[in-house]
Here is the input.
Amino acid sequence: MVSCHMLKYLAVVCVIVTGVFVSACVGPQLKATTQASVFNLKSEDIAQGGLAFITSSSVTGQEEDRQALAMSFTEVMKTLRPNLRVVPLATTLSAINHAGLAVDYKRMLEDYRVTGIFEHKVLQEVARVSGARYVAQLKLSGFRQDSKNRLGMIGIRFVETKSTDLRLFLQVWDSVDGSVVWEGAEELTSARDTVAEETVTFKSAIEEAARQLLKSFP
Here is the structure.
């Protein structure tokens, strides 16, 4: 026979578990901070001139992350801004290699890490072979995933809080005069209570950061 004390205890557990599952069904909590500076760029400029993405930089140092960063971002841009003429990274790289510009392109990227400047002559060649006037580079300056137990009883974990912090930077150059015409940064924090062993994927974090940053894009 179950005692009154045990019934009360089970009732409390049921209430807590129900609340946990309801909380876990709520979507992720997002905090986005966007900074953007427009120097000389309008939407019609990119629609007419085109925007070619070049090799991204990443704090992870892994080639696959840099490729995935550019791919995910350009997919979101094409979806949200179908009026813009966007040249994906893979297309740009193929055009550079086909034109025999690989050595100059590598040197330009290496010099940029020191000077923060893309050499105008090489930038013009990259734009020419890609068929776009404007050149864009993405930088992943921060990416962190974390998981914390939020609630548990009698040795059983009910829910975890999964969080992702990401910092993304986009810079657009005009190949005609070698100037920076737009730049923006996005800091995104996503947190979600869940009872599953799921995490916020790298791809989904980049896509959400892209959606937030593109709200400020011309």
Remarks:
- The radius of gyration is 23 Å.
- The chain is about 45% helix and 35% strand.
- The chain has one domain: 27-216.
